[in-house]
Specification:
Number of helices of chain A: 2
Largest interface: A-B, 13 and 14 residues
CATH superfamily of chain A: 2,3-Dihydroxybiphenyl 1,2-Dioxygenase, domain 1
Order of helices and strands of chain A: EHEEEEHEEEE
Oligomer: heterodimer
Strand content of chain A: 35-45%
Radius of gyration of chain B: 11 Å
CATH architecture of chain A: Roll
Number of strands of chain A: 9
Helix content of chain B: 55-70%
Distance between the termini of chain B: 20 Å
Number of domains of chain B: 1
CATH superfamily of chain B: ACP-like
Largest sheet of chain A: 9 strands, mixed
CATH topology of chain A: 2,3-Dihydroxybiphenyl 1,2-Dioxygenase, domain 1
Helix content of chain A: 10-25%
Strand content of chain B: under 5%
CATH topology of chain B: Non-ribosomal Peptide Synthetase Peptidyl Carrier Protein, Chain A
Shape of chain A: globular
Distance between the termini of chain A: 28 Å
Order of helices and strands of chain B: HHHH
CATH class of chain A: Alpha Beta
Number of helices of chain B: 4
Shape of chain B: globular
Number of domains of chain A: 1
CATH class of chain B: Mainly Alpha
Number of strands of chain B: 0
Chain lengths: 141, 76
């Protein structure tokens, strides 16, 4: 099968968490370095924390809800932490959007420029075989 | 019975969802027994495919009842 999105890289694994601080105590065992702490992502009404370590290039993203209208609130009704999505960095964001839409992925968020990384766009998709994924990248206009 | 509703009920009764609750236009989707956010996305995915329509992220948030879903499907 052809790679329709060449140079795609695993960027992060995201967990929805009720408490970033509680989750950090556990994830910190494997990912002790905090590169971003509770930064507000206005587009999603969530707090983002990034954890990393010296051997892996991907990050752990902790997503804590704030306010009522956010994508993770319902997931956390009965659980402290839920595996939320896998984030991939693509070289051409618009191409990524089109390829996923044309390959039976359901777009579940409107593409948005991230507050935490200006110039970087993000969009979430769902497919029953893959679960929820996110693509992040620059728009090549 | 409305043809769209019949098709929606068939999807929900399928092995994939296995919903045994009584479904009608007034059903609030999140109140269906065992419903959760992942099942909701799977349902939206099936609706797109079975009705051959595109559902926008805004509509996914908007679809809270079967009547709204029917309206959106029939507008496409």
């Amino acid at each position: 099968m052809n790679n329709l999105l060449p140079n795609t890289k695993l960027d992060h694994i995201a967990y929805a968490v009720r408490s970033t601080d509680s989750a950090m105590k556990m994830f910190g065992i494997m990912y002790p370095k905090t590169t971003l702490y509770k930064a507000v992502e206005k587009n999603q009404n969530v707090l983002i924390t990034y954890l990393s370590n010296e051997t892996e290039s991907h990050r752990i993203e902790l997503v804590e809800p704030i306010g009522e209208d956010n994508p993770v609130k319902n997931m956390l009704k009965t659980k402290e932490t839920v595996m939320y999505h896998v984030g991939y960095r693509v070289t051409d964001f618009n191409k990524g959007i089109n390829i996923l839409k044309n390959n039976n992925f359901l777009m579940i968020t409107t593409p948005f420029e991230t507050t935490i990384e200006p110039g970087i766009w993000a969009c979430h998709f769902f497919n029953p075989q893959c679960g929820i994924i996110e693509i992040v990248g620059e728009k090549n206009e | 019975m409305n043809e769209t509703l019949t098709k929606i009920k068939k999807i929900l009764a399928s092995e994939q969802f296995n919903i045994t609750d009584e479904i009608d236009e007034n059903t609030i989707i999140k109140e269906i027994t065992g419903w959760d956010s992942l099942l909701h996305l799977t349902f939206m995915f099936e609706i797109e495919n079975k009705f051959n329509i595109e559902i926008t992220p805004e509509q996914i948030k908007e679809i809270k009842s079967i009547s709204t879903l029917i309206k959106i499907i029939e507008q496409k």
